[in-house]
Amino acid sequence: MEKNMEIDFAKMEGLGNDFIILDDRKGNIELHENYPALAKRLCSRHFGIGADGIILVLDSHDHDIKYRIYNSDGSQAQMCGNGMRCFARYVYENKIISKKKMRVDTKAGTIIPEVILNALPGDKDQVHSILVDMGEPVLFCRDIPFESPNEKAIEEGLIVGDKEYLITALFMGNPHAVLFVDDVEKIDIERIGRLIETHKRFPEKTNVEFIQVINKQELKMKVWERGAGRTLACGTGACAALVAASLTGRASDRAIIHLDGGDLDIFWDKKTNHIFKTGPATLVFEGWIKIGDRQKIKKY
Length: 300
Prior knowledge:
Layout: E1 5-14, E2 17-23, H1 28-32, H2 35-42, E3 53-58, E4 65-71, E5 76-77, H3 81-93, E6 104-106, E7 109-117, E8 127-133, E9 156-160, E10 163-171, E11 175-180, H4 189-197, E12 207-215, E13 218-225, E14 229-231, H5 235-247, E15 254-259, E16 262-269, E17 274-279, E18 282-291, E19 296-299
Parallel strand pairs: 2-3, 4-6, 11-12, 13-15
Antiparallel strand pairs: 1-2, 1-18, 3-4, 4-5, 6-7, 7-8, 8-17, 9-10, 10-11, 12-13, 13-14, 15-16, 16-17, 18-19
């Protein structure tokens, strides 16, 4: 086996949540370096390409395509909403998948993104935004998982240090703890987020969303992501925020979620119990990198 291998990559971002997209349908990448180690190296913002995670494009036997994601710390995530939009745009524009609406195999189950093309004739094949059917929110504590004496945890007390926070725990392909605050700008996101992420009542850790209600159709959100820390946006977190706000009467079944990286349109279809998320995905740059003994990166 060769010590080094050159692989193509695309650096993409969804509202500032950035990812390195790698096509490993032939399985050659993992022969040279396992995915967790590769994620840690490539995601380093000082010694690598820099990203919140890597996303693998893989073959699937029973879906149109397979999606796998590893966080910057090497841990594997079940799903990421912003990452899924980037993934869908990549596989469509690179003609890996020709259908605008596709069935994607993820660790969280089947996710169905749909690319929305530009209306202008000259840009008809370029993706404008992506609508993603994120599936159903899971509220049962045993399935999140979240240790609680209650079947569901809606505004349940959680002791963090010497303070109690009211959280709503749910699963949107990955675990979330949503808490409402008067002003997200006055919250110590790093300290509180890290403590809740690793709280013993979340045996598999959790993402943490801090939500400020503007009105019934608008929420302002800051996020601490499991395995990645503070990021500019989190798609599954935005879905979790809407569910928690709707359940507690703070928002309707559709709202714009304002994140540090931009806005997401989230809709909870109560008839089907599915969450739909619409937002952008942007190509930052493409290049190749040599993996193996030494890393060499070239942008083009």
